[in-house]
């Protein structure tokens, strides 16, 4: 089951937890704020689809993001 991830970069406070928990999915973009890595990105840099094997990693990033800028859900 694919997993959709969304980053609201306007909410991001650059706390960097997402890079720690899901470093293959979230990579630093302009201003140090995360973007979705090109291999997973859809509809621009703030949204992506990742394989189910990465669910726990991206979910951990969502849980630890202090500004709730990351959303993760199974489709
Ligand atoms: S964990 Fe949240 S606040 Fe921190 S860099 Fe990632 S999206 Fe931004």
UniProtKB/TrEMBL annotation:
Classification via Gene3D superfamilies: 3.30.70.20
Key words of the record: Electron transport, Iron, Iron-sulfur, Metal-binding, Transport
GO molecular function: iron-sulfur cluster binding; metal ion binding
Protein's UniProt keywords contain Coiled coil: no
Short name of any one Pfam family annotated for the protein: Fer4_15
Protein name as annotated: Ferredoxin
Organism: Pyrobaculum neutrophilum (strain DSM 2338 / JCM 9278 / NBRC 100436 / V24Sta)
Top-level taxonomy: Archaea, Thermoproteota, Thermoprotei, Thermoproteales, Thermoproteaceae
């Amino acid at each position: 089951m694919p997993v959709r991830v969304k980053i609201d970069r306007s909410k991001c406070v650059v706390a960097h937890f997402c890079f720690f928990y899901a470093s293959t999915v979230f990579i630093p973009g302009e201003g140090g704020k995360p973007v979705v890595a090109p291999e997973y990105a859809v509809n621009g840099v703030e949204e992506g689809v990742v394989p189910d094997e990465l669910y726990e990693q991206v979910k951990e990033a969502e849980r630890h993001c202090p500004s709730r800028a990351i959303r993760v859900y199974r489709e």
